[in-house]
Structure formats: C-alpha cells, structure tokens
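Retro notes - structure team

What went well: the batch runner handled both jobs without manual restarts.
What didn't: labels got mixed up in the shared folder, which is why I'm recording both outputs here explicitly, each with its sequence directly above its tokens.

Job 1
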Amino acid sequence: MISIANYFDNGDYSGTRYFLLKKLKPPANLPVLYFSSTSHPSRSITMASFTSTTFLRKLALRSAPKHTRSQLRSVSSLGIRSAVASTALSNNVANRSPVVNPHQHRGMATISAGDALARLATDHPHMEIIRYEHKNVKWTLKHVNYYSDALACGFLDAGLQPGDVVLSWLPEHFAEQHILQFACSKAGLLLYSLDPNPELAKKDPETAKAALAKALELTNANILISQEAGDDVNYINLCQGVIPEIRIFDFGEGMQFFTPRYPHLRFPVHTGYTITGNEGMFLFKHFLVPSNNLDSLLRETGCKALDGKTPLLGELIIGKDGIPIKTGKTLTNEEVFKSKAWPQVSSILSREYKEIAGVGVVF
C-alpha cells in the first residue's frame, strides 16, 4: 500500500510532507490512503482513479521511484476535497470499501450533487466554469454555488421541505434552470421539467396549456417555475389559462396561495423582473435568500441527511401530441451525474468549461 501523510489546515494544504513507504510501482487497483491529522477522516481511492483524474500535480515524493513520480506529476495540484467530490459522484471507488470514520456515517460515494459543488467551490472558487452568450455572463464555481445555495435557502425558508416537488417550465439553456437543478439537490427537492416548446405554444396555445395542466396533475408539484415570456410567447398568460386564481391572487397580501384545481400547488413562479400586473405569481429572484444557513434550515425540517441516493430528477413521459401521459422513473443524485441527464450539472461537477448559446433570462 502507498500511504501519503499530509497535514491540512481547514481542508487545504499547509505543508508538502508526503512519505512513500514502499518504492514499488503500484498496480492500478492498489488503494492510495491519504489522511489528515485534523478534522478530515481517512479516505481511500484506487491508484487508477487517483492517477487518471487531474488532481495533485506536484507532490513532494522525492523518495519515490522515477516512474511513480512521473505518474503523479501529471495530476493537477487541486485540493483533496475536490478529488473526493469528483471520485465520489463518478463512483470510481465502487469496488473498494472506504476507510470508516466513526464520526462520519456517510461514505465517499454517497454525496449529493449540491454537496459536491460546495466542495469544489470551496477549493477552487475562481475557476471559470460556464458562460452564457446571452448578456455575456461568465460564472465561476463560486458563483454557481452561491446562487444555488441562496435559492435552496429561499425554498426552505418559504416552507418547502425535502421531498417536495418542483415543476420547471423553463428552457434547458437558461441559467435559472441550471441553478434550480443544483438548488433542488441542496434542498432535497424532486425536480420535473416540462419543455416550454415555443413552437407548439405559438401554433396551438390550447395544447400547450393542456400539457402544463397535465404535468401539474401528474407530478403533484408544490411549486411551478415558468419564464415570463420568450420566443414571442407570453407564458404568464398560458399559466393564467391553466390556473385562473393567478389573475386575482396577490402575494403581497401575505396569504397562502391556493387553487382547488391543484391543491398541492403553493407557489406559481416566473423569472421576470417585475410583479406589476402579475401579483399572483412569485418572482424567481425573490426566492434567492443568501442567508448562508442551509444546514440549519435542513435540520429544522427534521429530514434525514441528503446524499447521493436522494431522489433528484423526476421523468415525465410525453405523448406524440406533446402532452405528458405519465411519470417515469426517478433518478438519484448519483444517477443524474452518471447518466448526464443534466449535461450542465455533470460538466460543472467535472470542472469542464462550457459556453451556452440561446437567449433567455440571466438573473
């Protein structure tokens, strides 16, 4: 076994003292054990996954054989916590049992997408990760984590709880959609997505409204998130056609929204910039609550710890006419990452810079 001893300071490097106990070329499946003398538990990953990622480019392994140093030199000098976040979701440690820490009950392979993002953002806050051509907005890992954390806090602060259902009627290229995906992971919410299909909405508004109505019925959504308008379609008008109470309700009065058609629906939300004339829908940006107390909000709900097995993505089966016919399978955090069901979530967690085309709201 190769053992690398390292001293940490709040999760980051405070020294470069590493020791190679055996000057032997390790097989690919040999575990690399690295450990901390402070708060970090011992963790184990295989040499194959350790050397195939882009972690730890410069290691002070002067006593190591030349071939071992050349293997490890090709790996980037990023933090241990990032290595854990990446290897956990990609399940490279599936064939090995992680070293058990009595103070930590969740294994490395069970962290949620939101937790992985938080770890990456802590280690590499200024790494540019995504750019939206609309408005030329470029975000770092810190930006993505900050906004998704604020949105998750807003959801929980509004009374939503882990296990509640979100129905998104947003295009997949919206920044708001990507932030929503991470926020649902952080808050333990189940997210369904319905294609807004602007061509159908322009050609046949009644079918578009029928699709939304059926999606609300099938998912029992507690919150609906729609764009205000886009591609010459007024989506608020479509929402009002499905949920007439939006026309007369006013969130400014402090009352709980209710519609007998969908008694489970608590928040109809739009991504526009003003409530004038649309008082019956909550503003997406008003859900952003940068209180930095997500952990305490989750504890107050009494839910169990969120991890990689927590449900995250709900599937809608769409008929040939564009109307949902039933709900499909539910994917966990780990399954979403592995299957790349949400491409931007997977690319961000893999630290792959992407540029997103398309016009749309960027808050």
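Job 2
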Amino acid sequence: MEWPDLVLTLAGWALNLSALTTLMNKRAAVPMTHSGIVLVSMVAIVVAYVGLGLWSSVVATVVGIGIWAGIAVYRRPEPRSQSLQPEPYPNDD
C-alpha cells in the first residue's frame, strides 16, 4: 500500500466513524439535499480511486456510501405536517 492510499483510507475511516454517529442517533435529522450530494460525490470519488488503483480507499469509501445511504433513508427530517402536530399533554388525573 502506497502512502497516498494509506492516508486516504485512514481519512475515509475517520469520516465513516463520524457519519456512523449520525446514523445511530435516532434524534438526528439530515436533509435529503445534503445526503444526496454526499452520496453523488462519494460515487465520483470511488470512480477516481478505482482509476488510480487505490483499493483500500475504495473499500473505505464504499462503506461510507452505505452509511450515507442509511442516513438518507433513516435520518431524513419528518414531513412538516407531522412535525407541526402538538404533543399531547399527560393526563393529570
């Protein structure tokens, strides 16, 4: 493994761990515009890494794509109609 692949792989895994905390946080809400841009960018990065033969970086980035796909599906904000509903008050009886 050449040093550029090592550096990019380590950076990729650090970013994956950071994104994983967002995926695991049930209270997190990430707009689809953000998740979508990240996913498209990461696919472009994988294509570049494949072209450069940086295979460890490819693996780290593909895992990151999976994490961000999970964020896009499970951590998008609630629709406005649901989020504007008042919460019921507990019964004082």
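One thing worth noting from job 2: Residues 3-77 form one domain.
We'll revisit the folder naming next retro.
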